[in-house]
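Entry 12.
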Amino acid sequence: MNRHLRLKTSHYALAGAAVWLTAQPVQAQDSPLPLNPKLSVIVDGVYYDDSLDGHGDAMLGETAGIFAAHGHEDEGEDDHGGHEHGLEQGFNLRHTEVVLSGSVDGMVDARLNVAISDEGDVELEEAFVASTGLPAGLRIKAGKFYSGIGYTNDKHPHAWDFVDQNLAYRTLLGDHGLSDTGLQLTWLPAWDHYTLFGIEAFQGDNNERLGTEAEHAHELPDRDKAPRLWTAFAKWSPDLGHDHAVQLGASAAFFRSHQEMHHHGEPDEHGLDGDARLVGVDAVYKYDSGRAYGQGDWRVSGEYLWVDKNLEVAHHESNPGVIGEARDFSEDGLYVQATYGIAPRWEVGLRYDAVGFTNEKRGPRPAVNADYDESERWTAAATWHISETSRIRAQVAQVSGAVGDHREDYTQFYLQYQMSLGAHGAHTF
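Predicted 3D structure (tokens):
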């Protein structure tokens, strides 16, 4: 099934319905479920160009490694299928986000987030309810939502410090990160320092990279029953006063019933079935100078992710004798980035991101083994925050990517405009 629920409707029909909802009069006190929804619309436009005649962004989704030669359900039969279209050369209107959020009876928060493409398709990104009144620091979230693992995963594009997703997430988790339908339980103990523990159970159907179901995989065994994806995470932040803040985190995820169909890399088509896991660590530092509109403020963050897939050959078109052989894949990725407020409402940023320092495939025979090169990128950005709800960002990047059996070195240029209409709550740490 598709990662997102796709509905055929127009921008105006959806926005009109949301406006109608928020415009309805508040019911009297005898209403059993008082709801006060807030509406926001976020527009994201990008001009893009590169030194490869506009092909560079899509090429970032095809870097050599353990995700570069298989298909999943509802994707194409080569590489990453329908997910890696990339920005086109010239003007792009990325997904327009429409968000409805509100509180029900003061005990439950609800949120609906949909993304509208420039062709009018609507994709359901999040639709969940979360408790607000449980004792002992407990909180339950249910529905479709972004996982709480890592630092970047649950941030929407309008909250990024750069135009595009970092290479570690884009390669190992997909451009949208890890999002699925399930349950989350978090515990915030009443300790002297901020500490948060969380566990999640997901259906395991909507992921771009891990825990996937192979397309046209009639030869592969049936997948395990749901939930097929389990995660755990912890975040800790010491008290450093009003000016400084640090948060450290660790995450893990286990994916049952990961399937792949490979169409090249070994002779003839073959299918794999097994499990996958991910571990990661993250760190964030922030400094608040106390000056106007972010001048003198610092933000520094980084993450390291490592993925391991333990699979077996479940189907081979020309050599059934290898069925049951092990295929182990591993790849890692990282990013480190910093932003600094050089003037009121102006900030500059620098990012280094890379994948593939560990990037290998292993099996019982030497002919199966493969090692892939790393890909890396340096990015610089300058952002003008026109107001609290709109910004203009210029970004340039230098890429050295492993693509197939060769390397591509090229330069990317982005010019982005973002605007938020309506209610817009504070972002997470």
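Annotation: The helical segments are 11-23, 56-60, 167-172. Residues 1-29, 71-84 have pLDDT under 50 and may be disordered.
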